[in-house]
Design brief:
Helix content of chain A: over 70%
Number of domains of chain B: 2
Number of domains of chain A: 2
Number of helices of chain B: 20
Structural class of chain A: mainly alpha
Helix content of chain B: 55-70%
Largest interface: A-B, 23 and 25 residues
Radius of gyration of chain A: 29 Å
Distance between the termini of chain A: 78 Å
Radius of gyration of chain B: 25 Å
Number of helices of chain A: 3
Oligomer: heterodimer
Strand content of chain B: 5-15%
């Protein structure tokens, strides 16, 4: 009986530890990566950066180089045609 | 008497020197990050108790103190956000402040520092007594106590950390009474043990682990013993004493509603979620890597203590494992221990294992290094002493080796004392030699914001003029809160600009401790019209920097 009680106690403890060093550890790692990579500060920083870049580009005489302008023109035309035809 | 002095000669000499150094240096330490809040908490509870029992003697003084705190520190969070702690240290210190009419801010903060230090010293003596009971030589308990009391981070914190380090002191004293009860089982010892368990719980909620361990021990005894009735009786008396003393000395419990009692542990969760700078990256305090506490302990505990701890812990774990696999259905003694010494080791081992389980299985909200886990110093020191004793027993007959070992230990201690001296009064930011000088910048350093006082002094000395000087802050902790350690005349010409107006200041102080990710959030960015004027470092560990406005 006594040995049975010890075995039960140790088994529960081992299962608990095993869970935490395998699944628990992996889940916590993922959680940590997720939360720390999408932090509020980072998102605000990126938003601000995009805003600044747009403002900066508005002050320029020319935003795109000729090749990119041509490429975008073709792309937008194609998209517009496809939308019209549908 | 003479023989007693002779047999404890080393610890007596050590105590005299230790206390003397403490008395001579306690005024050198700055204000810790939580000291204002703790003081405020002390007056909150003092006021509560005096009002509850209708004691009017000090009403005006207490109310004036509370108003003073609110006026001088408008940004200090209200006590209501964390009113669960502080009754054991903050309330008596608040009472002393009122009773002895200590009104100079310098004096009441120095008093707190001195009291905290003395309580820690007392716990060191209890630790020595624990080791004396466990180890049959005099020298090893002495050496173990020096590890407990001289570990730099612990020594540094012993002056200003009235919460986490105070808990370490209380935990050590509680464990002393635990072992005392196990050695001599009587009602008085049980009551004192239950009382200290209650003190440990009200100091930090993790203190609940000690009464829980007592119950585990009783269960282990019951598995083996025919005296189940007697053991159950002990548990019930203990629980009664524990809850009774907990309720009696902790006014926080008197204020709880039934609903709050049901969610009792919820209120102990830290509600702040700052960003933590760790290994060169920023993490949310509740989503830290698992390596956070182990890494901090590894880089800020003297290396020889880590080695001795490893030897002591593995040696005990081996013995525990052997006992476990050799359990027989019928045995005359207990399964997991045969003597009181071994039982004490088992108790420490069970508590330590529970701490490890809690740490590795829950997402704790941690910041400021291993401050919240500073009580682990008890376990590091205990197993280090066991490790030393193991080495001693192994080479007992080899005098040459023993002498050599003692010389090596003394050399390590000399290096430790050297570090304590050069770090003074910043022992709480100590790093060992496992970390390079370059890598020290990848960790938060002055997390207790001790350097604020020295930073202000430095700027006043630099400015050296009768004209006003304005100081901005680029740090999470408000610089102006360090005013309490200055006399009014010292700060006549000083204007504190805070963080948001720092660009208009003459100087900016930063201890490089932030609650945000400074790579993306520019709250603490040093304006371009400032240049780095001075950096104060200790042992190549950067403590604080001062930036000066360009002319």
């Amino acid at each position: 009986m006594k040995i049975f009680i010890y075995k039960i106690l140790i088994s529960f403890l081992l299962i608990f530890i095993l869970f935490h060093i395998t699944f628990g550890y992996a889940i916590r790692n993922l959680e940590s990566k997720f939360y720390n990579n999408f932090s509020n500060d980072k998102i605000l920083f990126l938003k601000d950066k995009v805003r600044k870049e747009i403002i900066r580009s508005l002050n320029k005489d020319k935003i795109l180089n000729n090749e990119d302008a041509e490429l975008l023109k073709k792309f937008i035309n194609k998209i517009t045609n496809e939308i019209k035809n549908n | 008497m003479t023989s007693k002095i002779k047999s404890h000669f080393l610890i007596i000499i050590f105590s005299i020197i230790y206390l003397l150094i403490g008395f001579l240096t306690y005024k050198d330490y700055g204000i810790g990050i939580e000291e204002h809040f703790q003081r405020s908490s002390g007056f909150y509870w003092l006021n509560y108790i005096f009002q509850l029992f209708d004691i009017n003697t000090y009403n005006i003084t207490i109310n004036n103190k509370i108003i003073d705190i609110k006026t001088a520190l408008p940004n200090l969070p209200p006590v209501e956000i964390a009113k669960n702690y502080g009754v054991l240290f903050d309330l008596p210190t608040a009472f002393i402040e009122v009773f002895f009419e200590i009104n100079d801010s310098k004096n009441y903060f120095h008093l707190r520092h001195l009291l905290n230090y003395l309580i820690f010293y007392l716990s060191g003596i209890f630790f020595y007594k624990i080791l004396l009971e466990r180890i049959s030589t005099k020298i090893i308990p002495f050496l173990g106590s020096t590890i407990y009391m001289l570990s730099p981070r612990i020594y540094g914190n012993s002056f200003f950390d009235g919460k986490d380090l105070f808990f370490l002191s209380i935990l050590t004293i509680t464990l002393f009474f635990f072992f005392k009860f196990e050695k001599k089982k009587n009602l008085a010892n049980l009551f004192i043990f239950a009382l200290f368990c209650a003190f440990a719980t009200s100091s930090r909620i993790i203190g609940v682990i000690v009464p829980f361990t007592f119950i585990i021990l009783i269960i282990l005894k019951c598995i083996n013993s025919k005296n189940i009735k007697w053991n159950l009786k002990i548990v019930f008396i203990f629980i009664f004493f524990y809850i009774f003393s907990l309720y009696l000395h902790w006014p926080y419990l008197w204020t709880l509603s039934f609903q709050e009692l049901i969610n009792f542990f919820e209120t102990f969760k830290v509600q702040a979620y700052p960003k933590v700078f760790f290994k060169g990256n920023f993490f949310y305090s509740h989503h830290l890597p698992l390596s956070y506490i182990p890494m901090w302990i590894a880089i800020s505990t003297p290396i020889f203590c880590l080695l001795l701890f490893f030897i002591g812990f593995t040696n005990y774990f081996r013995r525990f494992f052997l006992r476990l696999i050799n359990i027989k259905e019928k045995s005359s003694s207990n399964d997991l221990w045969s003597s009181n010494y071994e039982k004490n080791d088992l108790i420490v081992f069970i508590i330590f294992s529970q701490i490890l389980l809690i740490y590795f299985s829950t997402s704790l909200n941690l910041f400021s290094g291993w401050r919240h886990f500073i009580f682990i110093n008890f376990f590091i020191s205990y197993f280090s002493a066991i490790g030393l004793y193991f080495i001693f027993c192994r080479f007992r007959k080899n005098y040459l080796f023993l002498r050599l070992g003692l010389i090596i230990f003394l050399l390590f201690n000399i290096e430790l004392i050297f570090k304590l001296v050069i770090y003074h009064p910043y022992q709480s930011v100590y790093f060992n030699n496992l970390i390079s000088d370059k890598d020290k910048k990848l960790f938060e350093v002055d997390t207790q914001s001790l350097s604020r006082v020295d930073g202000i002094k430095d700027i006043i000395n630099t400015h050296n003029s009768k004209t006003n000087v304005s100081i901005g802050t680029a740090s999470w902790t408000p610089l102006e809160n360090a005013r309490a350690l200055f006399s009014k005349s010292d700060l006549d010409n000083v204007i504190f600009k805070g963080t948001s107006n720092k660009e208009t200041a003459d100087y900016i102080y930063s201890n490089h401790y932030f609650e945000i990710d400074v790579r993306y959030n520019k709250k603490y960015e040093i304006p371009s019209n400032f240049y780095l004027y001075k950096t104060f470092s200790v042992d190549n560990t950067r403590i604080y920097s001062i930036y000066k406005k360009k002319n």
